[in-house]
Specification:
Blueprint lengths: L2 H18 L8 H12 L3 H8 L3 H9 L6 H10 L14 H26 L6 H17 L3 H4 L2
Helix pairs in contact: 1-2, 3-4, 3-5, 6-7
């Protein structure tokens, strides 16, 4: 395949992906911007001029997209004739996230209480502590509220 055929294939693939709205994590948006810009045959300097920023800004965003504002990303995408259609995804099931937080909170609260009781020689046996941790964890899990998230 000659260079022109390769470029045409790359343009076709990029166009197809952009039309479909291929999902990509926000951390990769700089890389996506670079791929689109290069597919269009546009330099960083040319893109910077279209956006109204200096070329090093484009370079930084393409390398480290987490260091830019959403406003700038939207301007860049507009200059590349693209738009942003993002959505929020949970890293894990929210109930699992709540359960982990409830377990951590229950252990912290009861271990502190039982430590104080142990200093006064009033601590119950370990099995009772574990049972109470499970009860408190269940209560926190079933009724999550602001107290669950306090450190």
């Amino acid at each position: 395949m000659n260079n022109t055929g390769f470029k045409n294939l790359k343009i076709a693939q990029m166009s197809d992906n952009l039309k479909k709205g291929v999902i990509s994590p926000i951390e990769n948006i700089g890389e996506q911007i670079k791929n689109i810009r290069e597919t269009l045959g546009m330099t960083q300097k040319q893109l910077a001029k279209r956006v109204g920023v200096k070329q090093p800004v484009i370079s930084r965003i393409e390398k480290q997209s987490e260091n830019c504002s959403m406003r700038t990303v939207l301007k860049i995408l507009n200059a590349l004739n693209c738009r942003f259609s993002g959505f929020i995804m949970s890293k894990e099931d929210l109930s699992a996230f709540i359960e982990k937080a409830a377990e951590k909170k229950a252990e912290a609260l009861l271990n502190r209480t039982y430590s104080n009781m142990a200093m006064e020689k009033q601590a119950p046996y370990k099995g009772k502590l574990n049972g109470e941790i499970e009860e408190l964890k269940k209560e926190l899990k079933n009724n999550p509220g602001p107290g669950l998230w306090d450190d």
